[in-house]
Amino acid sequence: MARARPGTPADGHDGRGDDGRGDAGRGDDGRRQERERLHRPFAPRRARAVAWVVAVLAVVGALLLTVLVPDVAAGDRVGFLVVGALVAAFMARQAGVRAVPDEEGLAVRNLFLSRRLAWAEVVEVRLGDGQPWVQLDLSDGDVLAVMAVQRADGASADAEARRLATLVALHSPRG
User: Fold this and answer.
1) Same domain, yes or no, for 58 and 12?
2) Three-state SS for 163?
3) pLDDT truncated to tens, each residue of the chain (175 aa)?
């Protein structure tokens, strides 16, 4: 289970450069590049690819049904197209799941809901056994799923959960 509390090294990285001098050994460019790497958006890999494939197949299938099936009423043809468009729209929304970090907090866009969090609101980052995606324990007692980091992505999901926990620790007022 990938679990990290703010203020603990979540990625196995102790914050020091190769020379052991910490940020002083990296220079401004190294620190800036590391912050940019940490602040990249989170997005699922497999689910996103599958969603786009299903969206294309739904549209193509609806078009083929509309054109190739003989003796179908015009209303049914319109129905094929509407169902194909609805499936494609749902899949596009699935492909658009993401979490975008910045210096102030995290913008989470899940399948149906979006939420903006300040870093101080995030208490813990969890990717537990059996959980399909990362969960954030929040200071108000809520738990927020972050569908952008999905267990189905395997080892990269663990790495992304550690990266998110590192961001929480980096921006934590407690750290």
Assistant:
1) no
2) helix
3) 445 444 444 444 444 344 444 444 456 777 888 888 889 999 998 899 999 999 999 999 999 999 999 999 999 999 999 999 999 999 999 999 999 999 999 999 999 999 999 999 999 999 887 889 999 999 999 999 999 999 999 899 999 999 999 999 998 776 5
Question: And the tokens for 52?
Answer: 């786009």
Q: Which residues of 15-42 are buried (b: 16+ CB within 10 A; e: fewer)?
A: eebeeeeeeeebeeeeeeebeeeeeeeb
For residues 90 and 103, membership in a common domain is answered with no
If you write DSSP's letter for every residue of 67-80 in order, what string do you get?
HHSSS--HHHHHHH
Could you tell me the residue range of the domain that residue 157 belongs to?
Answer: 2-41+99-171
Overall number of domains in the chain: 2
Both 154 and 122 in a single domain? yes
Task: Tell whether 63 and 133 lie within a shared domain.
Answer: no
Q: Which two tokens stand for residue 101?
A: 């970090």
- The answer on 120 and 80 residing in a single domain is no
157 and 107 in a single domain? The answer is: yes
pTM as predicted: 0.74
